[in-house]
Task: structure prediction
Amino acid sequence: MLQRNHFLTLFSRLTWVALGYLILLSAAESLVVLGLPHLGLLLHGLILAALFLFASLVNQSSQRQFLLALTLAPLVRILSLTIPLTLFPNNYWYLVVGGPLFISVFLITRQAGITRQMTGLVIDKFSLQLLVGLSGLIIGYAEYKILGPDPLVPALRWELIWLPALILLIFTGLLEELIFRGLMQSTATLNLGHYAIPYIAGVYAMLHLGYRSALDVVFVFGVGLFFGWIVKWSGSILGVSLAHGLTNISLYLVLPFLLEEPTAIKELLLPSKPEPYKVFVYASKSKLSANLNPSATDIWIIVSTCNSLPLHTSLSTIQNTEPLPVMQIPVFFMDSILLISSLDKPPPS
Result:
């Protein structure tokens, strides 16, 4: 009993625990970025286990709430590394990972006695929340200029983007703000005081190391400070959830088509001095991926640069249900080929 009390005395002030958590979380994310996902996953697992252990030993409910809320950050990465996401289309990855996270949030809020008001799931200052939400369009534009990601859909058409947009709104906007500005920030405020907002913004930024951009980490930290201040001022995560969702919708569904060609297409453009070369593109009914090592069992389109064909060259012979022919197609058609190759039916002539 004396030993247990001594242990609790060492960790009665969570400042050092919180600092150690942030350092270890950063280290785990860095291992993943450096191409050591197994070590990163191991460290994330140790962080998760340590948090549950500490939460079981503290007596104050506010400290237990804070420690349990912090488990959600390593859990995000553990789920994203262990779930076989390649079995699903990439625009469903957020749903696949977000489903278990929603369940985890529910269980933690019940176990820790975290109220709905603490999570920010309230509606207050509605018109101002909508104004905050619209800031996501500006944030999305700024982050696109930093990252320039490829789109999650093959074309900017309503029938292709409405479901991915809804997924991004719920499983990145609402879910991530519920985790970081809802559970984490509210419980951190009870233990870290006015340091809570920058601390949680730091945790949030560290989970963006995977984008391999120091500028983006700094930018996301600033966004975290802005979102954190809005939630503290309004007591609601409505506005920041909408802003977060619109940021990702702009970033992954809209701006790649409005501002610039996808990176994958740009890399296939003709060089200044055209030289014939082959690009192998794997085609299936459900998904598409580039690969330079075709296997005998795969179906492949072989595309080579050629400037002699007219721009209206028919691609109607491309099908998914039988071996695909060798096509001599200008590489500038690559975006059209990618789109057509993913159709279940041959395109019209």
Notes: The CA atoms of residues 305 and 330 lie 5 Å apart. The chain has 14 helices and four strands. Strands lie at 278-283, 288-290, 300-304, 327-328.
